[in-house]
Every structure is written in structure tokens, then in C-alpha cells.
Write a structure and sequence with these properties.
Rossmann fold, 6-stranded parallel β-sheet, single chain, 14 strands
Length: 375
């Protein structure tokens, strides 16, 4: 039985990370499979991506009677174009078992995309939150998750990024090409402001990593810091980073902070936990599969309506507004005694690798792919 993973293996975006996590997971359980780049739009400049995909990339997809299992990592609005590209290259849809792994960040999956999902033989969910969103749209799925385990290797030091060696460092990521209102960076700035008020002499540093798709975000960053009057207090990294640098940046922080309004999975939090770093995140949506009071710092919230134009297909839906007071209250004891945070981070690391490490996810994939044995 052939297995082909299809999507964007070289793209520095969420769907690319999602696919690469399943490549690593399947490789960890010694499965044989190919990887097919469906649109071939991404540059191939990241050495870690090339090393992971390695010799697994294929130029065609088995079709007809030898179609095997094809696992598509696609957003709902990509399906029509992907199927057209599939047909244009002479690949038969029929004959194989077609599985899709969609991403989504709100409580109900869009109805128009749900209809396209029904053209697949099976749907996999990356989190319980996505599974519930699909169910709300009348689509059954199987919970698989994705791996957050990081490849071993040397880490770039703090000085590479301009971070203070002495500081307790908070790190926040957001992508301007992915609806920044969902990541809610303003709440992180407010958290930092209140922490500085509460402990004015503490050695604190906030690092904001911002990007715009595959590009930097220099103009936006300059205006953003000027608008908030914090240009001299916060380290902002607006240049593109490769996988090694991102891994090093996360490892160099003390606490990864995501006061998001919604996450389909919450990969940044999961990666930080896998690297042994303390994670703080809104206690709502995809990250609740692995971020608990026993493994990190989940932050209280209230649900609010998604504003007009704030997110695609957001009309009539809700998302979370994190309680910044709760975030401050949870961080102050850790800042006063960093050993508390380190102990909690080690618990989080062990837990997330058990549930969302390469082998755990790879075994769940194999369980769905492999037909039951007949006795």
C-alpha cells in the first residue's frame, strides 16, 4: 500500500508546518511514504525543510488501482484548485483513499468549505476544537493531532537575537498575513505594561516576532512600536527566520505567551512546551488539548462576538478575549521565583511529548491508515 502526503512541504506557513509535522511523525514509526508538493509555489531555501522531506519527494501520485492512501494538508478554500491541479497532471482521484487534514480556528467550520470536504473518504482533525467545529458543520472526523517535537541540534544563543542574557524573556509570535487580530498582540503589550508597573525593577524583556507571509514586516513594525510608545522597551524581530533560528528563538525565551482569541491547534505553544519552555496561552480552542494548569499557564477568558471583517466566515461566531489580569497574576510568582516556572515547564514538556510527540502522532496515523488484520 502506497502512502503519499500532499500539500505545501516547503512553505513557511501554518499548513506547511502542519504537513511537515506529519512527515516527521510518519518517519518516526518507519512508514514508507512519498511527499508531493501540490502547487510548488514556495521557495526551497530552508535547509531543515529539505532535510526533513529528503528523498521522499515524488513527482507523481499513484492513481487508479495502485492509488493507495493520499493525505492532503489543505485549507478548505484550496480544495477546488488542488483537485483541478490533481486532474490536470493526469492523476485519477478514484482508486485511492483520499484523506484531508483541514485547519480552522472558529467554533463552526464554514458551510461552503464543509461541502468540499465531503468529497474525501476521511477527514482528520488536528485538535478536539477542530473536530467539534467540523461536527458543528455536519462533518465527521477522526482526531489525529500533529507533532510538536523538534529535531535535535544546536541552539542559537540569546546574543544572536539581541536578547539580554540577564532578563526574564517573554516571547510572542504573530503573522500579519494571517489575520493578526486573531493572535491579539495588543493583549500581550498590555500584559507587559502591567508587569512593568507591578514590578518596575524586575529585569523583564518582551520579544515580538512578527512576519508577513514569507517576508519581513519592517514598515509595519516601525509604525506599531511608535503608535504604542514602546520602541525603546521591546525587542521586535521583523526579519524572516529559518526553522533553525525559530527553534533557537523559542529556546532562548523563558515564557512563550499567546493571548490569542482563537487557535485551531496552537503550534507555537506546543513547540515551546516541547523545547522545555514555559507556555502561557488563552484557555480556549485548540491548545487546551495539551496546555493545562498542570503543564503551563492557561489564562481565563470571556467569549465575545467576532467583529465585522475581523476573520473570514466570522459572522455570528464567537472567540475569546483573554483576561490580562489573570495573566499578570499567574506570571508574577514565576518572575519572583523562576524555578517555579522551570519546574512547570518540565512537566509540560514530558506531557506534550507523550501526547503530541512524533511517535504518538505517527502511531495514530498508522492506526487510521492500516487496514485491520483478518484472523
Amino acid at each position: 500500500m502506497s502512502i503519499t502526503l500532499i500539500g505545501h512541504p516547503y512553505a513557511p506557513i501554518g499548513m506547511g508546518e502542519q504537513l511537515r509535522s506529519h512527515i516527521a511523525a510518519l518517519a518516526s514509526v518507519h512508514a514508507e511514504f512519498g511527499v508531493y508538493d501540490i502547487f510548488r509555489f514556495a521557495t526551497r531555501a530552508d535547509p531543515a525543510h529539505a532535510a526533513l522531506v529528503g528523498g521522499r519527494e515524488v513527482d507523481d501520485v499513484p492513481s487508479g488501482e495502485r492509488g493507495g492512501v493520499r493525505i492532503f494538508h489543505l485549507n478548505g478554500d484550496e480544495i477546488a484548485n488542488a483537485r483541478a491541479a490533481f486532474a490536470a497532471r493526469g492523476f485519477a482521484w478514484e482508486g485511492g483513499r483520499n484523506i484531508i487534514v483541514p485547519a480552522w480556528e472558529l467554533p463552526v467550520y464554514p458551510a461552503e468549505w464543509a461541502e468540499a470536504l465531503r468529497g474525501f473518504d476521511e477527514i482528520w482533525a488536528l485538535s478536539r476544537f477542530i473536530q467539534q467545529a467540523l461536527a458543528a458543520a455536519g462533518v465527521e472526523s477522526h482526531l489525529i493531532g500533529q507533532s510538536v517535537q523538534q529535531a535535535p541540534g544546536p541552539m542559537l544563543p540569546r546574543r544572536h537575537f539581541g536578547m539580554r542574557e540577564s532578563a526574564f524573556v517573554l516571547l510572542h509570535f504573530f503573522d500579519l498575513s494571517s489575520w493578526a487580530s486573531r493572535k491579539n498582540p495588543g493583549a500581550v503589550l498590555e500584559l507587559f505594561r502591567r508587569l512593568r508597573q507591578a514590578v518596575p525593577f524586575a529585569d523583564l524583556q518582551l520579544v515580538l516576532k512578527v512576519k508577513q507571509g514569507e517576508f519581513g514586516a519592517e514598515d509595519w513594525a516601525r509604525n506599531f512600536l511608535a503608535e504604542h510608545g514602546v520602541s525603546g522597551q521591546i525587542l521586535l524581530i521583523d526579519r524572516p527566520l529559518d526553522s533553525e533560528a525559530v527553534r533557537g528563538l523559542i529556546a532562548a525565551c523563558d515564557c512563550f505567551v499567546s493571548l490569542h482569541r482563537a487557535e485551531g491547534f496552537g503550534r507555537g505553544l506546543g513547540e515551546a512546551m516541547a523545547l522545555g519552555r514555559l507556555a502561557m496561552g488563552t484557555n480556549w480552542s485548540g491548545n487546551t488539548d495539551f496546555l493545562t494548569h498542570e503543564t503551563g499557564l492557561p489564562v481565563e477568558y470571556r467569549l465575545i462576538p467576532v467583529g465585522a471583517g475581523e476573520y473570514p466566515h466570522g459572522e455570528g461566531q464567537s472567540w475569546a478575549e483573554a483576561d490580562v489580569d489573570d495573566a499578570v497574576a499567574q506570571l508574577l510568582p514565576v518572575i519572583a521565583d523562576p524555578s517555579r516556572g522551570r519546574a512547570l515547564a518540565l512537566q509540560g514538556q514530558a506531557s506534550v511529548l507523550r501526547s503530541h510527540g512524533n511517535r504518538a502522532v505517527g502511531l495514530r496515523m498508522l492506526e487510521r491508515i492500516t487496514p485491520p488484520s483478518r484472523t
